[in-house]
Amino acid sequence: MANEANEQETGVQRGMADVVAASTRLGNIDGIQGKLWYCGYDVIDLAQYGSYEETVYLLLHSKLPTIQQRDTFERELGRYRRMNPGLLRLLCNLPGAPTPMEALRTVVSAMSAVDPSPMDKSRQANLRRAMRIIAQMPTIVAAHWRLRQGEEPLSPTEELGHAANFFYMLHGHAPAEVEGSILDMCLTLMAEHELNASTFAVRVVASTLSDLYAAFTAGLGALNGPLHGAANTEVMKMLLEVEQTNNIDGFVRGALTAGRRIMGFGHRVYKTADPRATFLREVLSELDGRLPGVHWLRLAEQIQDTVFKYKELYPNVDFYAAPALYGLGFPMEMFTAIFACARAAGWGAHVLEQYDDNRLIRPTTSYVGEIGRVYVPIAKRG
Ligand code: ACO
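That is the input. Now the predicted structure with acetyl coenzyme *A docked in place:
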């Protein structure tokens, strides 16, 4: 209440809600209708009929590729997957026990030190940098996880597509067709989402004309919070907990009464269902039994209905991405890093868009502190 009053007095939009801070040709959300488009294309069509690589191409080039362009692009991304040996050594020697996101953030930041042409600031060079980071993030995440398990990291293969290779580098075998296609869909659905917190962080850093590695590092930092990208891990923890206690109603009511957030619900922009969540729910439902762990879906559906009974809240993409990724055998500690790998496409495109028409992003504050205070030397302060 105090905050609302303060907001009226100062004109501050807390959390910058509804503030239009940039123009973009990338993501476009209709939060009332529950629709999302990338460069004018419905995200559901891209997830259903396209591929993650096509989506990356679309975001980076503002148009869908021809077959030849797609093939060339896929080959190029495939070649960029391999990590620099120095970065692999860095990953092996990270102190302590970093989480997947901590490891990813550190290695992406260090990629600047091995940039093959650091002085080249051309658009073409930045495009190649974006592609290298997008291609290598899954390699870093999979290698880190295998090292954590005491296993040797696997070199990426150019024989497989982006999603299938990610699966292979983690599990040591290629995915079944249905597994590859679900992972590809998840990556496509999470590739871009206009000015979410992490993309905003990316654009702020890019607007200072700092480099792509710095911008991605900022994005990774912002994504890692439980109100943003880390919600998917929390969703899975919740599903496991509710499965144990077998008391959905009690869990939901307890959380809402205590004022706790139910992870995977609510969204700043969507005032109705998040289309990505609805689509994933449908896809997983149709699979019924063909993907291990689809029973998590049933539990999630019951939680969704129960939450709605008590409060008009809709699930966001994380709510159904969590059981999908778990069903694919990805450990829940890795979910946020997988989200980051997907969102790398949007981040790269936003950096290029920011550079193309840059003005330093530097908002201002409403000062609400004391004024006119008189300095008293330290010896005289009581
Ligand atoms: N559980 C319970 N209540 C919620 C939830 C939730 N998940 N989300 C929103 N609400 C309630 C708030 O308590 C508030 O209720 P009130 O008006 O009765 O006080 C109302 O909905 C509005 O909430 P705000 O916090 O003002 O909404 P905001 O736009 O600031 O927050 C956010 C959006 C952070 C996503 C919020 O919905 C949330 O915390 N969700 C859970 C975390 C989550 O799933 N994050 C992933 C977001 S999607 C993504 O990043 C991929």
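The chain has a mean pLDDT of 95.
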